[in-house]
Write a structure and sequence with these properties.
The complex is a heterodimer of chains A (427) and B (552). Chain A is an alpha/beta fold. Chain A contains 15 helices and 13 strands. In chain A, strand 10 and strand 11 form a beta hairpin. Chain B folds into four domains: 3-11 and 21-194 and 513-546, Rossmann fold (3-Layer(aba) Sandwich), CATH 3.40.50.720; 212-291, no CATH class; 299-411, no CATH class; 417-508, no CATH class. Chain B starts with a helix and ends with a strand. Classes of the chains: A alpha/beta (427), B alpha/beta (552). Chain B: Belongs to the ubiquitin-activating E1 family. ULA1 subfamily. Chain B: InterPro entries: APP-BP1, ThiF/MoeB/HesA, ThiF_NAD_FAD-bd, Ubiquitin-activating_enz.
Chain lengths: 427, 552
């Protein structure tokens, strides 16, 4: 093995890939530098970042390594759980509890000689622009909308038109059951992640009054147990979704309520699914989407073929149905659009109602927004003193606080950008 | 532990709702939420035969070993080459070079899941099994649950597909061809029946044809005298049945039909409100179309009756399905109101707990009654056909009735059918020229490769065939055009794009293409084995330059 590692690129190693890199195809850009130039860049210079070492991440790392990327970095804040093992194929039973990034990196380096994978066990928010600037490409295999919005906004902010290298192509994948999507984002040039927020499925939210008074579905009983009963019974203990004993308590509590109301269908599995918002996940769908992402990374890094413009979605439930299209940039996108979002509201609307409207909008998706105008703070979620000081505004009408066509800046601690609203009043 | 006992333990784990799930249920949790314990049990009793240990083949297997397929056998005499070691994740670099590729792959694949058994056969290939071993070789192949063939040499593939097609009891054959950025997938099977298709479609609530208990309950509501809270909690189904019944009395028994009538009907509903924010009446208004959408047997199911009746040579595994379909046809034509049996699943609706539980109970009771009627008819059909009365278990009947609005029966075609069907080629050249371009390019590659291999064999030099196979653009063009009937041409660009890409990378099993095929094919295999979800019907072609898939 030692001999292999020192001369890792054995003759014939890249026989398959070199068929692509040694000559152009009919649809290859004339700028493609076939032969040693492109191989040297791919195998000697390209530096790529993988965000997420889970279902997609494991696949992405293996594909990149086999394709010839030699300098790969990976970030993941999670540790390995037993329910990962049906698809996250770099992990074994003995790895349960260990950091995903570290175990994945070690496995790839052991299996694919000559590849360096540098793991970081932590959050993407721990890293600054200087860190992200070192990469040629970023691939995301995340299950969190918030993390995607963060990295998307960070990469868009980094773009300096004077410095071409500051533009880092972002390739993003996601899956759910037999469905998935892969997309290429050129920050500032193509539509960005934030531009397409309204394409996300709206999460089902049950009205509190239904949960409290008129439960009909097993889910209503489970929500009652987790949202209302848990805090009442365990005032000082936070619910731990990953602790089977906590789920067990919720299950039994929900089951009792269901029996009381003669509602059928509360099971352990459903309880866990509702509380953790579990999305079904299988190896095959992750393989499809990760491969699509890595194929785009390969084409972008080598120019050996045109890359995806810019969105690919696949549904495998009824045959194999896929749709490739160009998702359009949104002019009023708070991250890459530059234009304020026009919002027409009733002059009677209170600030509190405005905040509620914002949290419900699918194209904004902001949880705890703070609002201000160029001249004053309307409502701030934190720190506590300012929250208290601005709280009285909540009951006031927006029309008393903001002049017609006035701008309101909306921020949230979870998002690295602000949203500009231009308020108009309906007469 | 055998696959059988494991699937039992899984069953007991998911049905004993009082306890936390066991180790195995936790491992498979994210997939059990898709295909449930029935799908998992089917997967665990499957044994797959895989006819190569290429990067694409091991990628497919990886995605089947992880979810827990029962067993697989890799039949491949290839010795690992340096290029294999470079593009296959289930080989260990130079350490694997010189060793039998299938053995190395099986060893590394099995690391993924203790519950799976894997075997390698490295002293012969499929052609030897079929040619030298005669009938016993053919029977051995047919004994598998499903066969997967990636870039199998043309003559062997044609022989295999002929043999399997000749017997309607044969297992499905999944054929994958790929080169560089291009690929196609085809499943050869005789018949595939799906009860639990997971097709997104809601069964009828039968508001237009209410069963007696539903009608009676709806007519008994004293809207006038209900207090405001109860009034706002009457389920919309009751409201619609009631309003429709009253409407019909004054309209010769007919539901609203003109736009004006429908509008009037909706305003009748809204006028019943005691308060402007009664959500149950808003729901009723938005669902009012159900009153004039007649509940009939869906057209898909009607055509299923016809195709099931005309099916000959029914393989044993679809026989119960055909009997169930026959019983359903008798049911819908003899039992009023000539609809599918009522579904017991009710959507959520604005209602008090008491009202909702009550309406749920009404539907459930009625659906049990109708299911029992269906079971009586089914027993008759089984008797008439002289079949075993225990042929179909209760669980299957329950699932069949529950899914009777989304049943599917696929009639497969033989591998290569499109190349021999002039009308189809002519039509596809117009409607799916890009897809056909890929199919032709891969067909041309495969037949030229067969000729090349033959030439090599006569030269007695079997080593390094693949590396030497570099067909020219002209050869490929001629070969591909020969498949098309006279006078049929593809748009030049589509043809050139596919042929050009094939000429560029005639033998490239690219890691990303392999991984993508690994996912697509594993999804299809899972669908075939579990008989859940709907597999591809036709040639699924894939272009990873423009990143699309399309069925030819």
């Amino acid at each position: 093995m030692a001999a292999a590692a020192s001369s890792s690129d054995w003759p014939g190693r890249y026989h398959h890939i070199d068929q692509i890199l040694d000559k152009p195809g009919p649809r290859t850009d004339p700028g493609f530098l076939a032969g040693d130039g492109v191989k040297d860049f791919l195998r000697g210079q390209a530096k790529i970042l993988v965000i997420g070492a889970g279902g997609l991440g494991c696949e992405i790392l293996a594909n990149l390594a086999l394709t010839g990327f030699k300098d790969i970095h990976v970030i993941d804040m999670d540790t390995i759980d037993i329910s990962n093992l049906n698809r996250q194929f770099l992990f074994r039973q003995k790895d349960v509890g260990k950091p995903k990034a570290t175990v994945a990196a070690e496995f790839i380096m052991k299996r694919v000689p000559g590849v360096t994978v540098t793991p970081y066990f932590g959050k993407i928010q721990d890293k600054d622009e200087e860190y992200y600037m070192q990469f040629n490409l970023v691939i995301c295999g995340l299950d969190s909308v918030e993390a995607r919005r963060w990295i998307n906004a960070t990469l868009v902010n980094m773009v300096d038109p004077e410095v071409p290298e500051s533009l880092k192509p972002l390739i993003d994948g996601g899956t759910e059951g037999f469905k998935g999507q892969a997309r290429v984002i050129l920050p500032g040039i193509t539509s960005c992640y934030e531009c397409s927020l309204d394409m996300l499925n709206k999460q089902t939210q049950f009205p509190i009054c239904t949960i409290a008074n008129t439960p009909r579905l097993p889910e209503h009983c489970i929500e009652w147990a987790s949202v209302l009963e848990w805090p009442r019974v365990f005032a000082d203990k936070k619910l731990d979704n990953d602790d089977p004993d906590d789920i067990d308590w919720l299950y039994k509590t929900a089951l009792n309520r269901a029996r009381e109301f003669k509602i059928e269908g509360v099971t352990w599995s459903l309880t866990q699914g509702v509380v953790k918002n579990i999305i079904p996940a299988i190896a095959s769908t992750n393989a499809i989407i990760a491969a699509a992402c890595c194929n785009e990374a390969f084409k972008i890094a080598t120019s050996s073929a045109a890359f995806l413009n810019n969105y690919f979605m696949l549904i495998g439930t009824d045959g194999v149905y896929s749709y490739t299209f160009e998702h359009e940039k949104r002019q009023e996108c708070p991250v890459c659009g530059g234009e304020a979002l026009d919002l027409a509201i009733s002059p009677e609307l209170t600030l509190e109602q405005l905040i509620e409207t914002l949290t419900e909008r699918q194209d904004i998706q902001i949880k705890k927004p703070s609002l201000s105008t160029p001249t004053k703070q309307l409502y701030l979620q934190a720190p506590p003193q300012l929250e208290q000081a601005t709280r009285p505004n909540l009951e006031k009408k927006v029309s008393e606080l903001v002049p017609p066509s006035g701008e309101v800046t909306v921020t949230a601690s979870t998002l690295p950008f602000s949203l500009s609203l231009r308020i108009a009043y309906t007469s | 532990m055998s696959a059988g006992t494991e699937s039992q333990s899984l069953e007991s784990a998911t049905t004993s709702i009082e306890s936390q799930p066991d180790q195995k249920t936790r491992r498979y949790d994210r997939q059990l939420r898709l295909w449930a314990k029935s799908g998992q049990a089917a997967l665990e009793s499957a044994h797959l035969l895989v006819l190569s240990s290429s990067s694409t083949s091991t990628s497919i297997l990886k995605n089947l070993v992880l979810p827990g397929v029962g067993q697989f056998t890799l039949l491949d005499r290839t010795i690992t080459s340096p290029s294999d070691a470079g593009n296959n994740f289930f080989l260990e670099g130079l350490d694997s070079v010189g060793k039998p590729r299938a053995e190395e792959a099986v060893r590394l694949l099995l690391e993924l899941n203790d519950g799976v058994k894997g075997h390698s056969i490295v002293e012969k290939d499929i052609q030897q099994v079929l040619s030298s071993e005669g009938e016993s070789g053919v029977e051995w192949v047919k004994g598998f649950s499903l066969i997967i063939a990636h870039n199998l040499e043309k003559n062997a593939l044609d022989q295999l597909s002929d043999l399997l097609w000749a017997d309607f009891k044969s297992p499905p054959l999944v054929i994958i061809r790929s080169a560089g950025f291009l690929a196609e997938v085809f499943i050869q099977f005789h018949e595939h029946a799906i009860i639990d298709s997971h097709i997104d479609s809601t069964p009828s609530l039968r508001i237009d044809k209410p069963f007696p208990a539903l009608l009676e309950r709806s007519l008994a509501i004293d809207f006038e005298n209900l207090d405001v809270t109860d009034h706002g909690h009457v389920p919309y189904v009751f409201i619609l049945v009631r309003v429709l019944e009253e409407w019909k009395k004054s309209h010769d028994g007919n539901p609203p039909s003109t736009a004006a009538e429908k509008k009037e009907f909706k305003s009748l509903i809204l006028n019943m409100r005691k308060k402007s924010d009664e959500e149950n009446f808003e729901e009723a208004e938005s669902q009012a179309y159900k009153c004039w959408t007649s509940t009939v047997v869906p057209s898909d199911i009607k055509s299923l009756f016809a195709s099931s009746a005309s099916s000959s040579n029914t393989p044993p595994h679809t026989k119960p399905f055909h009997i169930l379909v026959k019983a359903l046809e008798v049911y819908t034509s003899t039992v009023p109101p000539n609809t599918l049996p009522l579904s017991s699943t009710l959507p959520d609706m604005k209602a008090s707990t008491k009202e909702y539980v009550e309406i749920q109970r009404l539907y459930k009771d009625r659906s049990v009654e109708e299911k029992n009627t269906f079971k009586g008819i089914l027993a008759n059909v089984i008797k008439e056909q002289g079949e075993d009365p225990n042929l179909i278990d209760d669980e299957t009947i329950d699932s069949f009735v529950k899914n009777s609005h989304v049943l599917r029966l696929l009639s497969g075609k033989k591998w290569g059918w499109v190349d021999e069907d002039k009308a189809a080629l002519t039509e596809r050249a117009q409607t799916s020229s890009k897809q056909l371009g890929i199919h032709l390019a891969l067909s041309a590659l495969s037949s030229l490769h067969a000729k090349h291999a033959q030439a090599q064999a006569t030269k007695q030099s079997q080593e390094g065939q693949n590396a030497d196979f570099t067909p020219s653009l002209e050869e490929l063009t001629a070969e591909a055009k020969a498949i098309l009937p006279d006078g049929v041409e593809l748009p030049e660009e589509d043809f050139d794009n596919a042929i050009g890409e094939a000429a560029r990378s005639p033998t490239a099993d690219l890691p990303n293409t392999a991984a993508l095929l690994g996912g697509v094919v594993a999804q299809e295999v899972i669908k075939m084995i579990t008989k859940q979800y709907v597999p591809i019907d036709g040639y699924c072609t894939i272009d990873l330059v423009e990143t699309w898939t399309g069925v030819l």
